[in-house]
Amino acid sequence: MPILVSSDKCTACEACVSGCPFGAMQVVSGTAAAGDGCTLCGACVDVCPVGAIELQVERKAAGTSAGDYRDVWVFAEQRGGRAAGVVLELLGEGRKLADQLGEKLCAVLFGDKVEQTARELLAFGADTVYLFEDPSLANYQDDLYASAMTELVRAEKPGIILLGATSIGRSLGPRVATRLGTGLTADCTGLAIDPEKKNLLQTRPAFGGNIMATIVCPNHRPQMATVRPKVMARAKRDDSRHGEIVRKALPKGVDLRTRVLEVVDELSETANIAEADVIVSGGRGMGDPKNFSLLEKLAKVLGGAVGASRAAVDAGWYPYSHQVGQTGKTVNPKIYFACGISGAVQHLVGMQSSEIIIAINENPEAPIFKVATYGIVGDVLEVVPALTEAFRRVRG
Amino acid sequence: MNIVVCIKQVPDTTEVKINPQTNTLMREGVPSIINPFDMYAIEEGLRLRERFGGRVTLLTMGPPQAKDALREALGLGADAAVLLSDRAFAGADTLATSTTLAKGVEKVGNVDLVICGKQAADGDTAQVGPGTAERLGWPHTSFVRKIHEVAGGSIKLERMTETGYEVVEMRLPAVITVVKEINEPRLPSLKGQIRAKSAEIPAWTAADLGATPEQLGLSGSPTQVVRIFTPERRSGGKILEGSLAEQLDFLVARLRETKAV
Question: Is A260 touching B (CB cutoff 8 A)?
Fold first, then answer.
């Protein structure tokens, strides 16, 4: 195996044993060793506190010189001319990072007739907005957005670029990062600046939310990250703020290989869980897909939306657009009802920042009760209708 | 249609449990599986072959034991499988993985469409599909939930968005990543499994791909993991007591204080 462990340095602390995502590290007679499951991912090298583990491959420090790159950029994703909610969160977080570095916060906006949106970005904290305005930019288009973004990055040399971990950000981010040959960290839930080296510390959940990993991009610039929506606090609006709008021209002759023929909005009929103040979610403990109507009734009385666990969605009981969790949506409503949801780790990562969590489950040992503000042990089919009735009474 | 489906062997994250005493991961006996999202990519490749003819070639980058995943996928009916395996690939982040897979697709040759699952269940990045497209110099569409048609050198499909979907037309060759709404994966056939058991699975090295070592593995990876830790869990509150009516009265009163209801 090209995983080399120095028996002199190794203290048998087992940091690598629990740090290995594949469970392949073991301590054998006082020294760590990689076993059969090893995929050479290098996680053990990074977690070893005494530097005893080496991957037998050269890591070249080729890359870009960090000194030439400065400023924090936010990709200001828009649909229908309006900036996405996550953009305001990125501006809030980006402002902190920029202030810490003593650099500017800039937004990059593509769209058609979006000057008003550009002004709003200034009010929400951007010092500069790079604005590309053209009818061809009304809808997201990979080739055009990626070419314009890459060209602007090469000219202006930002140190950090943040994008929302949305369907657009997760399509544009890897395109641009790959073209620039730099790193991109997906779906971050925490960002900070390393006080010594000034690198961006990018923290994200992995392995279905079972572990958190902090990732850096030390030798390449810009440092790029997509950030999970609804995790960071939104920037506050201040219309007295001043900043500049810098208009940029689209690059010429970009070959447009994809074309959006139609945009269909499906969420109008069903409430959007990402924005709701109250969410009533159901899991496999609901027993039958038709029992989700009980949750819909409770949600209706409370003016909330209906969510579902992965297990319920996988079973075909409720649509994926309502799924809460690591592979669904992250939500942080004021009140979250978890009905018949056991509380698997991948579900908890998507809802545990809710202000109040109410768990209803038959099994008093269900892990959901460990995170719930209030727990009711009982049959969901009895408790949920009773709760609906109780709220209906108080609301008249 | 000449199709390549990229797959990844991952630990089954739904089987991962936390040790309540030490708050660390318990990985003993966690099985390796084909990334669940890749099952939909394989199925879509097979369905396109059934509609338009052609070949489905499976591609994975991984250690020698990743051949097991390829063999399992061959049992579903793919025509061929190739393992990309070399020490030089070790420690790859999404950029280096994209580079390696793109070299593999180029070596397969004459490919019209590359299909990937939307993301891998261990990393959850969703970056390798688009990155591979960029390395190939091809267009891509992520989060595809339906393929309408393939005609005249282009493909028409539906891309899932936060609020619905978009109908997109894209020129071939291209890369797509698929979500689970796209199909219902089939089960392996007995005939397929027997054939898969004896199928030749070539392993291509960095030299076979003609790739420069600086672009691969750890050397070609701008990102590094510096810390891995178990996430903090929110601490629990109280389990309500008394009759159901009493519990509900308490709850309704508390929730009304929040003004959210």
Answer: yes
CA distance B153 to B208: 30
B53 lies in which domain range?
Answer: 2-215
- Find out if CATH 3.40.190.10 is the number for domain A3-55: no
Please give the model's pTM, rounded to 2 decimal places: 0.86
Q: Which residue type is seen at A6?
A: S
Quick check: A192 contacting B, CB < 8 Å? no
The count of structural domains within chain B is 1
Of A79, A334, A375, the CB nearest to B260: A334
CB nearest B239 (choices: A19, A220, A364): A364
SS (H, E, C) A30-99: CEEEECCCCCCCCHHHHHCCCCCEEECCCCCCCCCCHHHCCCEEEECCEECCEECHHHHHHHHHHHHHHH
User: B73 near B170, Cβ under 8 Å?
Assistant: no
| Cross-chain CB nearest to B139 (options A142, A186, A371) | A142
pLDDT at B218 over 80: yes
The CATH architecture to which A278-394 belongs is: 3-Layer(aba) Sandwich (3.40)
Are A181 and A191 a contacting pair, CB within 8 Å? no
B49-108 pLDDT, tens digit each? 999 999 999 999 998 999 999 999 999 999 999 999 998 998 899 999 999 999 999 999
Interface residue of A16, A20, A39 to substitute, partner B, most B CBs within 10 Å = A39
ipTM score of the complex? Answer: 0.91
Helices (H), chain B: 36-52, 67-74, 94-108, 128-136, 190-198, 206-209, 244-257
Exposure of B8 by Cβ count < 10 A (0-12 exposed, 13-18 middle, 19+ buried)?
A: buried
Fold of A66-248: Rossmann fold (3.40.50)
Among A residues 88-107, those touching chain B with beta carbons less than 8 Å apart: none
Substitution target in B255, B256, B257, B259 with the highest count of A β-carbons within 10 Å is: B255
pLDDT, average across residues A184-189: 96
Convert the pLDDT of each residue in B4-27 to its tens digit.
999 999 988 776 666 655 555 566
Q: Angle at CA B92, nearest 5°, toward A64 and A67?
A: 15
Taking the C-alpha atoms of residue A183 and residue B131, their distance in angstroms, rounded to an integer, is 11
Please report, as a single letter, which amino acid is at residue A266: E
Contact list, A146 vs chain B (CB under 8 Å): 134
Residue B133: how many other CB atoms lie within 10 Å: 30
Q: Is B223 in Cβ contact with A263 (below 8 Å)?
A: no
* Contact criterion met (CB below 8 Å) for A225 and A82: no
Residue whose pair of structure tokens reads 């590309």 in the numeric block: A132
- Chain B residues in contact with A364 by the CB 8 A cut-off are 239
pLDDT in tens, B142-189: 999 999 999 999 999 999 998 889 999 999 999 999 998 899 999 999
Count the Cβ atoms, other than its own, within 10 Å of residue A64: 16
Task: State whether residue A349 sits within 8 Å of chain B by CB.
Answer: yes
Domain extent listing, chain A:
3-55, 66-248, 278-394
